From TrEMBL:
<protein>
    <submittedName>
        <fullName>6352_t:CDS:1</fullName>
    </submittedName>
</protein>
<feature type="DNA-binding region" description="HMG box">
    <location>
        <begin position="75"/>
        <end position="143"/>
    </location>
</feature>
<feature type="domain" description="HMG box">
    <location>
        <begin position="75"/>
        <end position="143"/>
    </location>
</feature>
<keyword id="KW-0238">DNA-binding</keyword>
<dbReference type="GO" id="GO:0003677">
    <property type="term" value="F:DNA binding"/>
</dbReference>
<dbReference type="InterPro" id="IPR036910">
    <property type="entry name" value="HMG_box_dom_sf"/>
</dbReference>
<dbReference type="GO" id="GO:0005634">
    <property type="term" value="C:nucleus"/>
</dbReference>
<dbReference type="InterPro" id="IPR009071">
    <property type="entry name" value="HMG_box_dom"/>
</dbReference>
<keyword id="KW-0539">Nucleus</keyword>
Amino acid sequence: MARIFFSSTETIENFNRLPLTRKEIEDAYWKQYERVVGLLLNPPCPMHMSIEELTQPSSKSRQSTRFANNLRKHPPRPLNPFIMFLKNFDKGYRKFFKGGCSKTISKLTQEEWDKSGSAVHNLFNELADLAKKYHQYKFPDYEYKPIKKER
């Protein structure tokens, strides 16, 4: 059975149009969620984490903790596709191989990411889009403003 992958450019263009109502953000999130669930019915790679674990902000990260304790003004940004792949790969690797340093796991993850096909990349791109939509729903006033360091 051939898999059909959806191009989310139409959704992203509409989603990046500002300002969006809370209802539009919520509808876009659930539409993307259904798309991801469809892709996960027959995943192109082993999945060791749930959709929620991959797309919702971690409560254990340094930035999340600082935000929760009011030491940081802005919430952490949503994860990009590779970092989601890294989290998923790391959890699976540590299930089977106890120990292992993060540096080694990161190198193995990069090799797997490079070897993986477009189906895996598409899955994690869709998950990253879902994370962005969740982030915009949860923090509607958030705007990414990078701070440039002076040299």
